[in-house]
Amino acid sequence: MSQIDEQTRTELEAAAFRRLLEHLNERTDVQNIDMMNLTGFCRNCLSRWYQEAATARGIEMTKEEGRVAVYGMPYDEWKAKHQTEANADQLAAFEVNKPADAG
């Protein structure tokens, strides 16, 4: 891979993150619990990481503001529109594979 300067690398990473959010917003059929069970992270994790990054840079951001940045709307609204009830298999898999910092 060719040499990429730090600014360009940051811009590429930001573009990839924005595309990931677009993809997740297009795939509202994919439930957070399924993402957690398969990948160990979900939209809530992304929103928490986003909030943590803001805080690390001295930017005050609430949990809800971080979620709006990822979900594109308030979390309660997203849940009402897109979240389904987890079934027993999903819940059992989550308990087995739940990351220590899942929240």
Automatic annotation (TrEMBL):
Domain SMc04008-like, by residue range, is 30-95
Q: Which Pfam families match?
A: DUF1244
**Protein name, UniProt field:** DUF1244 domain-containing protein
Q: Which Gene3D superfamilies match?
A: SMc04008-like
